[in-house]
Automatic annotation (TrEMBL):
Keyword Methyltransferase in annotation: no
Record organism: Amycolatopsis taiwanensis
Ranges where the HTH tetR-type domain occurs: 11-71
Protein name stated in the entry: HTH tetR-type domain-containing protein
Domain of life: Bacteria
GO MF terms held by the record: DNA binding
InterPro entries: Homeodomain-like_sf (IPR009057), HTH_TetR (IPR001647), Tet_transcr_reg_TetR-rel_C_sf (IPR036271)
Keyword terms of this UniProt record: DNA-binding, Transcription, Transcription regulation
Database matches in PROSITE patterns: HTH_TETR_2
Lineage of source species: Bacteria, Bacillati, Actinomycetota, Actinomycetes, Pseudonocardiales
Length: 204
């Protein structure tokens, strides 16, 4: 019979699991993180983990859920939708997202290891992932669909446009291969301008 935890113990252990998950997932990833590592500092048996989360993926999803509102506000509300100019909105979105990836290890991990998001969606409820409140990815697709309807963006599927935007977000992984470090900010600025210009239609 599984041990009974008091409400205070449940709250403490949940906080510890979330803290442990954040540190481990961002450092070594979902697949390499074991249940033993997740429960190591909680003082409970590995089998008791399932009284708190259905799986490692469910813990990962909860960590994402807790950050989505903040991330969406920064990259969607305060950047992408902060202007009526679609081209400038895309520029602001890319810059804000690059800043967020620098400051936020969990979102950087998801961007650089998309297979982990796939694993979470497969093990958790896919609808729960895509319908997650304040999901920045969902908000981006809505924006693209809306702007295409208004004739502001090129004719391509939203998935293709998202993929093009994601290529910019992968550039920091190869920054050391791009020549003089002093040129890196100029490279990023020019790339963002080229992408934003290439995806949007000229207003006539």
């Amino acid at each position: 019979m599984p041990p009974a935890f008091s409400a205070e113990e449940k709250a403490r252990i949940t906080r510890q699991l979330l803290d442990n998950g954040y540190q481990l997932f961002t450092r070594q990833g979902l697949r390499k993180t074991s249940l033993e590592e997740l429960v190591a500092s909680t003082g409970m048996a590995k089998s008791s983990f399932y009284q708190f989360f259905d799986s490692k993926e469910a813990l990962y999803l909860e960590l994402m859920r807790r950050e989505t509102g903040t991330v969406k506000k920064k990259v969607i509300d305060n950047a992408l939708r902060a202007t009526d100019d679609t081209r400038e909105g895309l520029r602001s979105f890319l810059r804000a997202t690059l800043d967020e990836l620098t400051a936020n290890p969990l979102w950087r991990r998801l961007t650089t290891h998309p297979e982990e998001m796939t694993a979470v969606a497969r093990k958790a409820d896919l609808q729960q992932v895509t319908a997650m409140a304040d999901n920045p990815a969902t908000a981006l697709v809505h924006y693209i669909t809306e702007k295409q309807h208004d004739g502001e963006l090129v004719d391509a599927t939203p998935e293709v446009i998202v993929g093009v935007l994601q290529t910019v977000l992968l550039v920091p992984l190869y920054a050391e291969r791009l020549g003089d470090p002093g040129d890196y900010p100029k490279i990023i600025d020019l790339l963002i301008d080229i992408i934003a210009t290439g995806l949007t239609r000229n207003r006539s």
